[in-house]
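Lecture notes, unit on protein representations.

Consider one protein chain, 231 amino acids long.
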Amino acid sequence: MPKVSSIFIPILKERLYFKLRWFLKHGIRYFKILDYWYIAGWLSENEAIALYDLVLKINTKNPVIVELGSWFGKSSIVLAKALSYKKAGILYCVDSFDLDGDNFSRDTYIKEQKKLNSSVKEQFIFNIKKSKVLKYIKILEGKSYEVAKNFKDQIDLLFIDANHNYDSVKLDFFLWKDFIKIGGFIAFHDANVEKEHLNGGPLRLIKEEILNSSSWSEKKFIDSLFIAKKC
C-alpha cells in the first residue's frame, strides 16, 4: 500500500506549479478566478479572463448577469468572482441540470456525471459554495425558454452557453436579447470556426444576427468566446 505522502505530494506540487505558472503569466489581478480551473468544463484561460474583465467593465451599480447553461459552475464562478470584486450584483444561473444538451455534448455530460457521487445540481452548488460566491448567485432551474417566460429584470450581460444546436441557440437569442440593456453585452461560448463542425449553432447565429448588424458593436472573438455590445 503506497504511503499517503506519495499520493498527495505530487498533487500538491502540481497545484503549486499551476498557481505559480498562473501568477507569472497573468499576474495578481486574475488570481481571484483561479478556482475555476479545477472544475470540470470547457473554458480557456483567455476566455475566463475575458469574461472576468467584461463584468468589471459593467458600470451599473448592481450588475445583472444571466448565464444560460451552467453545468458544474466553471464559468459561473468566474462571473460571480467579478461580482464579488465589485461587492454588488446578481448572477442568474439558468440550467435544467438534467444532462440534456446538443447531440455532441450529451454523451460527454453523462460520462462526467457518472464520475461523481452526486447530481449535477448538487455538484454545481458544492463548487460555488467552495469558491465562496453563493451569495452572488441565484439558480433558476429549468429550460432557458421556460425561465424566460417569467423573467423580468434588465440584463447587463447575457452569456449563452446552453444547447448549441442552431435552433436552440436561435431561440435563446430571440427570447433573451430584449432583456439586455442598451450598452449591455452578449457573449456566446463555443462560437469559434474550429468547432463549427461539432454543432454550428453559435457561430451561425452570430453570422446571421450580429456580425453585420448595426445593433451590436465592439464585436470580438477570444478563443471560442464571442462578445458584442448592444447599441
